[in-house]
Amino acid sequence: MVNWALNKLPQFHSMDLRHKVNGDLYQTYIHKSGGIRVGKPTFITRCPGAITYDWNKELTYEKLDVDAITTSVMRADIINAAKMEGRLVSEQQISEQLNPQTDWSSLWPEEHTQIKLVQTERNCWDAVLTEEERNLIGEFLDI
Hints:
Blueprint: H1 2-7, E1 13-21, E2 24-33, E3 35-38, E4 42-46, H2 66-84, H3 91-98, H4 104-107, E5 116-119, E6 125-128, H5 131-142
């Protein structure tokens, strides 16, 4: 990873560098801007068998980039957290945690009305407002 940072890390980019010391996992950042700056190592976890990175199987040294490193660190964090709880995680569970799906419609309060749309003969959509919605818009525009 240090070799990649020295030779391939793009100018003005940063990456996370992880390493183990006596079973403890530490992380620091490397930033390249003219020269190389390295941050102070911070303790991440003490977990038997903790991993530093979890790489995509198709990833090679030549294809490595900052986004792949960041994703690998996040994947390792998910795996390590599961190990701390004494469980294993599947690829699907890792993917779900990396890319959570939010049902936004469930977060919208029921009492709010949704704007209704109707299709016109010109294949355009017009908004249909209730009298109350027209009054609210009228009050807002009069201010």
